[in-house]
């Protein structure tokens, strides 16, 4: 007859065997199907800043409002920028008038060059004739000197007129509207129009405005963040695993994810990347000696490595940046470990109903 002591001993032996099996499974599974609860939904957080300064006259969004690319966010008082555009337009008109005047100067310069060329040709011909007569002793030396002086003066006048024409031609450019004064005025007008367009700030992509603190009357300074914007298509999952747990990751690895927001459900995600370092090992050339890590523990804490997970489809809308999740990795080419990994994550997802 089995005594109570024998029954207790048998139960204890069974529990010890089960405990050893569980410990062995945990150790092996941590290499082939690692599980972590240290996971969060990550996303790009964009700080919306104004590109011009001024007083905010209108806030066109509400907190946590979903937006499409190009939707209005807020408006800055545009009055001084409207005046700047009008001033730039007037400056452009004046520049075009200056260009027309320069074209008239070009025509006058061309006529002057033609006159100077004719005068030079005549003076040069006269000098050549007198020079021949001077060689034959038929004219006086003073007459030759006067002819030479006239020739040199007319040549200088021609050269000066040509340079003046060249300077005007360079300023005017290759065609009407390409003069330096007109192009500078056009550039100023475009800058003024660009500044005016920046008084209306719009959403850079599809997303959500959160933590809205902006009010009408606030002063917007250039490049000063005023809104927090989160693109809805930029969410991913960042999971921190022990270093030994990710040694087996390769192109065949996949992930099952259980989000705290969806207890009882699991989602399939792909492994996008693994971070190539951690902040604890980052060094900077600060001129100081090495700081040696010390620990009195027999078994030191395991280093964790970040794995980034993504999906070809958008993550559920109920998720937000910072949502918690549990992740298990598994080799897609090994049906046994894939089944065990799915079983683990299902148990975790059901446990989320309790806590």
What does this structure look like?
A hairpin with a 7-residue loop joins strand 11 and strand 12. The protein has helices at residues 4-32, 79-135, 141-172, 180-197, 335-351, and strands at 35-42, 46-49, 54-59, 66-67, 72-76, 200-202, 207-210, 219-220, 225-231, 236-242, 253-259, 267-274, 304-310, 324-331. The chain contains 5 helices and 14 strands. The protein is an alpha+beta fold. Helices cover 43% and strands 22% of the residues. The chain has a 6-stranded antiparallel β-barrel with strand order 1-10-13-12-11-14. Strands 2-9-7-4 form a 4-stranded antiparallel beta sheet, with no helix packed on it. It has a 4-stranded antiparallel beta sheet with strand order 6-5-3-8, with no helix packed on it. Helix 2 runs antiparallel to helix 3 and helix 2 (79-135) packs antiparallel against helix 4.
């Amino acid at each position: 007859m089995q005594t109570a002591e024998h029954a207790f001993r048998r139960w204890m032996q069974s529990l010890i065997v089960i405990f050893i099996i569980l410990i062995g499974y945990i150790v092996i599974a941590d290499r082939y199907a690692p599980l972590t609860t240290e996971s969060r939904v990550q996303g790009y957080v964009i700080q919306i800043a104004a590109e011009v300064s001024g007083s905010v006259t209108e806030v066109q969004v509400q907190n946590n409002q979903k937006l499409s690319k190009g939707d209005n966010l807020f408006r800055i008082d545009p009055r001084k920028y409207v005046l700047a555009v009008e001033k730039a337009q007037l400056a452009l008109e004046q520049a075009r008038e200056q260009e027309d005047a320069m074209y008239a100067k070009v025509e006058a310069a061309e006529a002057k060059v033609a006159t100077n060329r004719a005068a030079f040709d005549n003076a040069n011909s006269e000098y050549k004739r007198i020079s021949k007569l001077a060689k034959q002793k038929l004219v006086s030396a003073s007459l030759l000197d006067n002819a030479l002086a006239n020739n040199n003066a007319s040549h200088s006048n021609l050269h000066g007129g040509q340079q003046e024409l060249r300077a005007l031609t360079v300023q005017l450019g290759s065609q009407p509207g390409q003069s330096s004064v007109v192009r500078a005025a056009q550039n100023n007008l475009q800058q003024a129009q660009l500044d005016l367009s920046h008084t209306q700030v719009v959403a850079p992509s599809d997303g959500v405005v959160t933590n809205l603190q902006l009010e009408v009357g606030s002063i917007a300074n250039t490049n000063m963040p005023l809104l927090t914007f989160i693109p809805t298509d930029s969410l991913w999952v960042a999971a921190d695993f022990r270093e030994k747990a990710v040694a087996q990751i390769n192109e065949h690895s996949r992930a099952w994810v259980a989000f705290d927001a969806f207890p009882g459900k699991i989602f399939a995600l792909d492994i996008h990347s693994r971070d190539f370092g951690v902040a604890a090992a980052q060094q900077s050339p600060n001129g100081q000696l090495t700081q040696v890590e010390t620990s009195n523990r027999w078994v030191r804490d395991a280093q964790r490595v970040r794995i980034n997970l993504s999906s070809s489809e958008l993550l559920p809308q109920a998720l937000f940046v910072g949502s918690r999740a549990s992740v298990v990795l598994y080799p897609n080419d090994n049906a046994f470990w894939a089944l065990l990994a799915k079983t683990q994550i299902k148990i975790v997802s059901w446990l989320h109903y309790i806590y």
